[in-house]
């Protein structure tokens, strides 16, 4: 039995896993990550549709690093309205339409959104 315990100890990770913390973080940030992913798809499509446009050129146009553009295209960046606006201007596309977003937000999943806001408020207090 001691041998089995030793084998298990040898097999186990030396550092503690942060899977639960990471999963909670992903769940907490799910909504903005969904928006970020949708923006990433539009930006990538616009880059592909613009002859000669590269991620590096886009970065230079909006005044950020190529690494930041890479994060945007992976849907991993919580974008500011300023950055979204710069992307829209540089690429000549519309990434965010508040009238559509607001009416969609009001009339779909309203109950879930209210619960999410209440839970968020409880966490902040």
Q: Compute the number of helices.
A: 8
CATH topology: 434 Repressor (Amino-terminal Domain)
Helix content: over 70%
N-end to C-end Cα span? 49 Å
The overall average pLDDT, rounded, is: 84
What share of the residues does DSSP label as strand, in percent?
Answer: under 5%
- Give the total of beta strands: 0
Low-confidence region ranges:
none
Structure class? mainly alpha
What is Rg? 21 Å
Label the overall shape: flat
Secondary-structure element pattern, one letter each: HHHHHHHH
- What's the CATH superfamily, by name? lambda repressor-like DNA-binding domains
Task: Describe what is shown at a glance.
The protein has 125 residues and is mostly helical. 74% of the residues lie in helices and 0% in strands. It has a single domain, classed as lambda repressor-like DNA-binding domains (434 Repressor (Amino-terminal Domain), Orthogonal Bundle), CATH 1.10.260.
């Amino acid at each position: 039995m001691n041998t089995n315990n030793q084998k298990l100890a040898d097999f186990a990770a030396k550092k503690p896993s942060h899977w639960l913390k990471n999963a909670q973080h992903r769940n907490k940030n799910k909504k903005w990550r969904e928006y970020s992913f949708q923006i990433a798809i539009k930006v990538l499509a616009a880059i592909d549709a613009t002859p000669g446009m590269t991620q590096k050129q886009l970065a230079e146009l909006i005044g950020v690093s190529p690494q930041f553009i890479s994060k945007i295209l992976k849907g991993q960046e919580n974008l500011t309205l300023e950055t979204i606006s710069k992307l829209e201007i540089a690429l000549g596309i519309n990434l965010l339409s508040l009238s559509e977003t607001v009416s969609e937000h009001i009339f779909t999943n309203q109950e879930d959104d209210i619960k999410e806001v209440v839970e968020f408020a409880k966490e902040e207090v």
